[in-house]
Fold this protein.
Amino acid sequence: MPAVVLVGAQWGDEGKGKITDFLAEQADCIVRYQGGSNAGHTVELAKEKFMLHLIPSGILHAEKLCVIGNGVVVDLGKVIEEIDGLHQRGIDTSNLRISSRASVVMPYHKKIDEIEDRTKKIGTTKRGIGPTYADKISRIGFRISDLLHEEYFREKFAAEVERKNRLLEDFYDEPGFDADVMLEQLMTQIGILKKYIADTACLVHTDLRVGKNVLFEGAQGTLLDIDHGTYPFVTSSYPTAGGACVGSGIGPTEIGKVIGVAKAYTTRVGEGPFPTELEDATGELLRDRGAEFGVTTGRPRRCGWLDAVILRYAARINGLTDLAITKLDVLDSFETVKICVAYRYKGELLYEFPDNIHVLQECIPEYIEMPGWNQDISQITEFNNLPLATRNYIAKIEELSGVKQSLLAVGPKRSQTIVTNSLF
Ligand code: IMP
């Protein structure tokens, strides 16, 4: 089947951007289905690095349909900035479509996110993600199509701004927003974006009907999923595979493959329990070698050994058919490498990922230790040319997760990718 979903199998930042970019070559349509400008990936344009937060990296291929789906929360100003940035670099964006059903991130959402994270201490990206999804679920949010009908939008918007101002001024003792100023800005923005807006579910459906290859690109990762992640230290959307259906308007029967992208070790940004975290020189080494700093916020990422309990969980929650293992080269200088195979909680061995963060907080990883390869693998292009220790490490990951690997990344460049099974 031509529909492939790509999900992060850990806490995000697994290198999905590189894999998406690689698979986009074979795709006719790339769909982003959740999240917002909290995500970020770097694309290289003629030796220049450029960051995209909302627009799928498939935009670099003029002939491919690039969709921001209904499950995404859209900061209109940020999309315009990204479009302008692409235009300045000579990239055509006429292949971009934004769902008319997507929710709009308002300036007050970003303000509330920033204020509330001071006490909630989730360590959010302050991009207004949680408050926008909260309003969507509370049925007081605004969708892109609302902005296209100013006559209905104006009054409802003024009432909502008044409510938000009461919250900001009376409860948080912070300045409120001027509804008229915001309205004018929103109308200007929607005017600029109008030509990109569409009922994108219809477009994706049409592509699937005629047998085109569609790639659904998840942002963040399984453990940041609002239901299946380490709640409350999660994002407010569904990065898991099921999110691809609701966030783009296609049925589950359309999906042929679900690829889990996993780093060869583990990282996370923001707060929350992380059993295999290494707060020592080994963790530092992983951060330095892996350049583990956030694309969106620049924050240093917390680093640790690979956690197979997480991978098994991600395999089950997402129905993974394939694994893409990234950043294997980051482990090049280790004499030995460790994999967490279970957790010890109050003396008991746990093989399933706990449903409660307080339990997770107290879990001690049970490791196996394997010989490292201690050599540069970044130029190897064939699986069979990888050192035996690397192949053993990969085989152990497959065994522990129950998922076959189909793609390995041994460096950031497209050429540093080893494909062992076709993904479309
Ligand atoms: P929010 O998505 O900004 O609400 O942040 C909620 C949590 O998700 C925080 O721990 C963030 O650090 C984390 N998060 C959000 N986006 C990403 C991402 O793209 N990569 C990794 N972590 C993320």
